[in-house]
Amino acid sequence: MIGKMAGAAIVAAGTPFAKGFSRPGEENQKLKGNIHHSVSQWCYNDIPLEDFAKACKEMGIESIELLEEKDWATVQKYGLKCAVGYATDWGIPKGFNRIANHEKLTADFEKMIPKAAAAGVPNLICFSGNREGQNDNEGLINCAQGIHKIIPSAEKYGVTIIMELLNSYGHKDYQCDKTTWGAALCEMVGSENFKLLYDIYHMQIMEGNIIETITKYIRYIGHIHTGGVPGRHELDETQELYYPAIMQAIVKAGYKGFVGQEFVPSQKDKLASLKKCIQICDV
Q1: How confident is the model over 59-87, as a mean pLDDT?
Q2: pLDDT recorded at residue 38
Q3: What residue segments make up the domains of the chain, in order of their start?
Q4: Which of 150, 196, 210, 244 is least surrounded by CB atoms within 10 angstroms?
Q5: What is the CA radius of gyration of the chain?
Q6: Which CATH architecture has domain 31-281?
Q7: What pTM value is reported for the model?
Q8: Cα–Cα nearest to 220, from 201, 192, 241
Q9: Which element (helix H / strand E) includes 74?
Q10: Are 260 and 38 in contact (CB under 8 A)?
């Protein structure tokens, strides 16, 4: 998606955005260590996981995430973490906002929390579920009740349950689609072992104001995802967000968790795209 001529012009012009890109001789530049870099495996699922793990290790990436239990050992073999694991085979539409879902979700998370702890997986992802006519207050109460059931295990084993913020246009009718709603849920749950997965791509679509929102709600954020807007592609000059500034704000806010690249590469060389975007975010 990056136009070679456009990219060259930007660097030559010496504009501030050029600082986010690698220059000749910087391709193998050591990462600074201020950002803990991770990447979502599903964006590269046409690359065998072992090959992908080797490539990520060479780039300085610390984690490959959104993996099922069966894949955790594979990334660990290459000295990587899985920053976020799955605990249930239920997807986004069926979440904690329905009382009827609590029995299965509780059983799935209770089973997986100790396994995640043993494997060094710090976070397990969960979802609110879709509204389906439910008002947001009822969904908030139901989510809090359901999550309370698994918090004792999460606290016991030191695993954090993270609920993802998604845009409810692409994920039609999804309930946890505003940072304020998610923050209210964190307050209701009242545990450091429940936080939000703040997805920059989704929240730019829903509410914008990314830097101020992250800064204000950082205490509720346990994990962060990236993605270019529009299109969810590379974090380059073709999209509307300036990621170096966002990453600087994250560091300034004292965030110590992982930042997961979750853009869908548009370039043929997907690993080159990933490496470039890691460098853009490495402030």
Answers
A1: 98
A2: 98
A3: 31-281
A4: 244
A5: 19
A6: Alpha-Beta Barrel (3.20)
A7: 0.89
A8: 192
A9: helix 69-76
A10: yes
